[in-house]
């Protein structure tokens, strides 16, 4: 899979799989993706994803807060973006137009506003393009 020189946005599930060994196949795929795009310093992550990562790893996986903090260290140096009222309005439009969940639309809107051309996620339709952002599921073999 060629990534080119554009910025990429990684959904929360990529970070969760990269940090958790309960599904080794997904962990390896997630880590390979992160390492590939990390080398090119093109990763964008949202405040929303950081919060979701902390929530999932502490509540679902019962990780200690100190271990979650250590896992968050893998995100250091990446561009971190947040949403504002305009982003929320944009996300509402995306959710309505594309019939997707609001929180997924927030990720697309945030990625689009950050200038990302690709969003890696398993939660949306593979190869779909929304607002100039191509959705790629890194767990699908092509």
Helix content: 40-55%
CATH homologous superfamily grouping? 5'-nuclease
**What is the total number of structural domains?**
1
Q: What is the molecular shape?
A: globular
> Main β-sheet, in a few words?
6 strands, mixed
Radius of gyration: 14 Å
Taking the alpha carbons of the first and last residues, their distance comes to: 9 Å
How many E strands?
6
Unreliable runs, pLDDT <50, ≥5 residues?
Answer: none
Mean pLDDT: 86
Overall SS class: alpha/beta
What is the architecture at the second tier of CATH?
3-Layer(aba) Sandwich
How many H/I helical runs?
6
CATH class: Alpha Beta
Q: Strand order, main sheet: write it out.
A: 3-2-1-4-6-5
Order of helices and strands: EHHEHHEHHEEE
In the CATH scheme, what's the topology name? Rossmann fold
- Portion in beta strands: 15-25%
């Amino acid at each position: 899979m060629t990534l080119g020189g554009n910025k990429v946005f990684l959904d929360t599930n990529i970070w969760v799989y990269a940090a958790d060994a309960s599904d080794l196949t997904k962990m390896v795929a997630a880590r390979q993706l992160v390492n590939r795009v990390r080398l090119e310093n093109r990763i964008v992550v949202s405040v929303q994803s950081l919060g979701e990562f902390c929530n999932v790893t502490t509540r679902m996986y019962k990780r200690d807060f100190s271990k979650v903090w250590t896992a968050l260290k893998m995100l250091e140096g990446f561009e971190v973006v947040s949403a504002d009222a305009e982003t929320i309005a944009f996300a509402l439009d995306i959710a309505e137009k594309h019939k997707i969940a609001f929180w997924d639309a927030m990720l697309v809107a945030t990625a689009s506003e950050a200038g990302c051309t690709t969003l890696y996620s398993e939660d949306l339709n593979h190869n779909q393009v929304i607002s100039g952002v191509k959705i790629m599921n890194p767990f699908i073999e092509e």
